[in-house]
Amino acid sequence: MIFQSASEIAAQIAAGEISAREVADAELERIAQVDGQIHAFLAVDAERAREQADAVDAKRAAGEPLGPLAGVPLSLKDIFCYQGLPCTCGSRILEGWHPVYDATVVKRLLAAGLVILGKVNMDEFAMGSSTETSGYGDTHNPWDLDNIPGGSSGGCAASLAAFEAALSAGTDTGGSIRQPAAVNGIVGVKPTYGSNSRYGVVAMASSLDVPGPFGRTVLDTALLHAAISGYDPLDSTAIDQPVPPVVRAAESGDVKGMRVGVVKELGGEGYQPGVMRRFNDCLGILERAGAQITQVSCPNFDYALGAYYIIMPSEVSANLARFDAMRYGLRVGDDGSHSVEEVMRLTRGQGFGAEAKRRIILGTYALSAGYYDAYYGSAQKARTLIVQDFTKAFEAADVLVSPTTPTTAWGLGERVDDPLAMYKADLCTIPSNMAGNCAGSFPAGLSPDDGLPVGFQVMAPPMADDRLYRVGAALEREVNGGRPLTSLIAGKPVGSGAGEVADV
Fold first, then answer.
1. Pairing of strands 73-77, 167-172
2. What's the CA gap between 431 and 463, in Å, rounded?
3. Model confidence over 61-89: pLDDT tens digits?
4. Angle at Cα 230 formed by Cα 178 and Cα 382, nearest 5°?
5. Cα 350–chain centre separation
6. What is the model's pLDDT at position 502?
7. pLDDT at 500
8. What is the percent of the chain where pLDDT is above 70?
9. Is the bond preceding residue 152 a cis peptide, omega within 30 degrees?
10. Is the pLDDT score of 448 beyond 90?
11. What residue ranges do the domains of the chain occupy?
C-alpha cells in the first residue's frame, strides 16, 4: 500500500475509511521492504509508532476531534532530541547517546497526532550536501540508487521519495532542506529564522540553523509547517509573532499580480542546461497564471558562499567543543592509563569524521587571535550586504526565484574528494540562511539531460512564508499534470527512475 498525500491519509483516518494503525503498519512494512537499498533510516521505532497510531484511532472512536495531520506517519532527522531513541547527528561521537527530553518540534509533532516512525540519516552534524559524511553509511537516491539524495537532510527526503513516510521534519543551515527536496522531487521549506523553535535541535551553526518541513505535496508541507511553527520561550532566538497563513496560501495558489523577481546572479553559466530549461518552464507557468516576471540583481550574493564558509565553521567550532568525551557519547581510551586530555584527543580523533574535522579546524582558525577581524569580521560585513541586497530586491518584487541547485543529483562518490565542488551545490540556497528570510524548493519536473528531478526555489521576506506556498501551489497545478512528481516512481522498483521525460 503506497500513500501519495499526507492530507488525504489524515482525511481518510478522520472519516474512518482506514485506521491510523493500518497506515502505520503499511509504512513500517514498506521500510522493511526497501530501506535495505535506500538506507534512509538509522532507527525504526515500530512499537511506539503503533502505540501513537492506536491513540489516534482511540480518539476517533471516542468522537474526539482530530487535527489535520492526525495519524500521518513521519520520519525525523536524527538531529532532534526524542526520548527513547538515540540521537547521533550522523556522528560516531554521539553513538549510543539517548536524549533525556524532547525537542519542541517533537512535542508539537506528537501534540498534532503525527506518528513518528523513527530517525533518519544525515550528514554528520548537518555538514554536507550529499549525506555521504554520515558516520553510519551513505543514503541512496530513490530515483537512482547510484546517486546522492542531497544533504544534509538526505534521509528525510529519501524516505519520502521512497514512500517510507508521508512527511519528514529536517533542518536547513545552508540549504539542507531545499537541496535534498530538489534532487528527490519533493517539497522542502526553510521557514523564517526564529519562527520555529531550535530548542532540542543539536546545534551546528546557531545563527543559521532552521527546522522545517518536507512533503510530497505543497499542502502537506504547509500543514506540517503550521504544526511545528510558533513562538517558543525556550528558544532565545524565537520570534513572538503569529505563524503566517501558510495552509490557506497552499490551498489558494493565487499568484495573479504577484511580482516574481528572477535573481540574475543565480543562474546561467555553470548551471546544468536541463535545470535552466525546467526553471524557465516554471517561469512560464507563473506568467500564464498572472504573475509579473521581472529581473533583479543581488550583486553581493556572489560573496555568500565564501562568507558562509567562514561564519558556519566558526559557529561549528564553538558548538562542537562540547563533545569532549567527558559528558556524553563516545569515550575512547578511558581505561585508566590515559590523561583527560589524551581521552579527549583520542575520542575526537575517532569520533569526528573528516568533514567535521575540516570545518572545526577552519572555524577555529578564523576565530583565532590575529585573524578574527580579517576573516570572521569581514564575513559578517558581507552578510550585512547580502541582507541589504534582499531588502532592496523585495522592494521591487514580492518573491525572488532561482533554481534550487545548479545541477541534478550527482553520483555517489563523485565529489567526496572535492569539497569546493560539494559546497557549490548550495550556491543558490545559502543567501537565505545568511539573511534569515524564508525560502522553499518546489518540484519543477525532470531534467531532459538525465531524467532526474529539478527544484524551483522561491524566496520571500521574513515572516512572509505564505508567499512561498502560493507560488508552489501555482506550479504544482501544472507540473506533471498536477500530480506529485513522485507519482512517476510510485509502485516502481526503487532506483528505476521515471522512464521517458515529458515536458512540464
1. parallel
2. 16
3. 999 999 999 999 999 999 999 999 999 99
4. 50
5. 28
6. 62
7. 66
8. 99
9. yes
10. yes
11. 6-303+381-485
pLDDT digits (tens, 9 = 90+) for 350-379: 999 999 999 999 999 999 988 999 999 999
Give CA–CA dist 218/220, Å, rounded. Answer: 6
337 has a pLDDT exceeding 90: no
Return the bridge partners of 74, or none. Answer: 116, 167
**Burial track 88-127 (b if 16+ CB lie within 10 A, e otherwise):** bbbbbbbeebebeebbbbbbbbeebbbbbbbbbbbbbbbb
Q: Tell whether the model's pLDDT for residue 281 goes beyond 80.
A: yes
Instruction: Quote the CATH superfamily of domain 6-303+381-485.
Output: Amidase signature (AS) domain (3.90.1300.10)
- Residues 18, 27: Cα–Cα separation, whole Å: 14
Helix (H, G, I), strand (E, B) or coil at 117: strand
Residue that the C-alpha cell 546572479 belongs to? 265
What's the predicted TM-score (pTM) here?
A: 0.97
Catalytic positions, please? 77, 152, 176
Distance CA 25, CA 297 (A): 50
Residues 6+ away with beta carbon under 8 Å from 2: 30, 163, 490, 491
User: How many other CB atoms are there within 10 angstroms of residue 67's CB atom?
Assistant: 18
Cα 349 to its chain centre, rounded Å, is: 28
SS3 179: helix
Angstrom distance (rounded) from CA 157 to CA 155: 6
Q: What residues contact 243, with CB distance under 8 A and at least 6 apart?
A: 195, 225, 226, 229, 230, 465
Q: In 3D, which of 25, 21, 75 has the Cα closest to residue 53?
A: 21
CB atoms within 10 A of CB 288: 10
Q: What's the one-letter identity of residue 147?
A: N
CA atoms within 13 A on the CB side of 456: 33
- pLDDT of res. 504: 64
H helix and E strand count, the chain? 16, 11
Pairing state between β 399-403 and 259-263:
parallel
Contact residues for 49 (Cβ-Cβ < 8 A; gap 6+): 24, 28, 73, 115, 116, 117, 118
Q: Decide: helix, strand or coil at residue 334.
A: coil
Q: How far apart are CA 497 and CA 81, in angstroms?
A: 34
Q: Is the distance from CB of 218 to CB of 471 less than 8 angstroms? A: no
